[in-house]
Amino acid sequence: MDQDGHGATTRVPGEFVHRADPADIIPTGWTQLRADRYSVSAHWPAAHPFFSPVAGDRHDPVLVAETIRQATMLVAHAELGVPVEDQFVMWGLHYTADPDELAVDGLSSDIHLDLVCTELGTRGGRLGNLRTTVVLTRDGRHLATGGALARATSLQAYRRIRGERMAALGRPVPLIPGVEPHLVGREHDKDVVLAPGIRPGQWRLRVNTGHPTLFRRPNDHIPGMLLLEAARQAAAATLGAGAYLPAGMDVSFARYAELDSPCWIEAETVPTADPSVDTVRVEGRQDDRSVFVATLTSAARPLAVAAGHHAGRLAG
Q1: 13, 127, 195, 237: least buried by Cβ within 10 Å?
Q2: Are 232 and 262 in contact (CB under 8 A)?
Q3: The A-factor biosynthesis hotdog domain covers which part of the protein (predicted)?
């Protein structure tokens, strides 16, 4: 329900979106419209240490994914009775954005989400699975559509499921050298999540447990947002697109990615009937098993640009 019964919204607590830094909290309020539908207000930062503008004048499209993720968790905790101490895992997330509406200048940074819970699965009287569909608008103009599939698990059940893997919680992970930032559309080495692989089109996931955005707290597995960023960087490297603008993304997760075993990221372009669109399929594999599969789409780039995609050099 809304906070005062009159449609007003208030500040979103960080624990509702699993973010401690106020700069990382994207939703600004919420209102229940009916049993399964919510209005969520959000604000996109004009400057952010990680979600920085792409190509100089466009909001990072991955902000759409992060906004959907946070809004889904917000509704689950604030309205659907999921305790904040529950483990909340995304098993699927997708969006399609209008690149023109991602402009940084000339439009408001205030975003509106119309969020509908299309599937609610309960176990033992508790919310288990949650599927949402989301429409994002900006200044009354259509910005993006998307949705998420999430699962909430009590802390006790999660500890049983993870078993001895819980020993990895907070354990340091050696930071391996990454590829050069410009090859994956990043300005700073600290934001690079790919290291060279052993063949073209393959990279090793680079895990920086000290990253303030991708590792917001000690974890016993690799966060999904880090894997999503790995997919984006692999697609950028595959297309030779430093200023890569993934207007569409669809990612599904098959299992937890563990901290103590190399995770390999593999990418390839996918032929499509539409020559104006580039499509890249990215898969993460660990111990010979698939961890996630992502499909990313963007406006096609000139053939002269899309070359030298294996990004095999180390960062300086």
Answers
A1: 13
A2: no
A3: 16-149, 183-298
CA distances from 71 to 50, 146, 159, 256 (A): 19, 12, 26, 22
List the end-to-end C-alpha distance of the chain, in Å, as a whole number.
Answer: 52
DSSP bridge pairs for 252: 92, 293
Residue 125 has what pLDDT?
66
pLDDT bin (cut points 50, 70, 90) of residue 315 is: very low
pLDDT in tens, 87-110: 888 899 999 999 999 998 877 889
Q: Rounded to whole angstroms, how far apart are CA atoms 154 and 89?
A: 11
* Joined tokens for residue 175: 């930071």
Instruction: Please give the CATH number for the structural domain made up of 171-316.
Output: 3.10.129.10
Per-residue confidence (pLDDT) for residue 57, from 0 to 100: 85
> 44 is written with which tokens?
């996109």
Q: Kindly state the greatest CA–CA separation across the chain.
A: 59
Give 6 or 149, the one with higher predicted confidence. 149
Classify residue 72 by burial, with Cβ atoms within 10 Å: 0-12, 13-18, 19+: buried
> Is the CB of residue 171 less than 8 Å from the CB of residue 232?
no
The answer to whether 227 and 290 are in contact (CB under 8 A) is no
Is 62 within 8 Å of 53 (Cβ atoms)?
no
Query: Per the CATH hierarchy, to which homologous superfamily does domain 1-153 belong?
Result: Hotdog Thioesterase (3.10.129.10)
Q: What is the mean pLDDT of residues 99-126?
A: 85
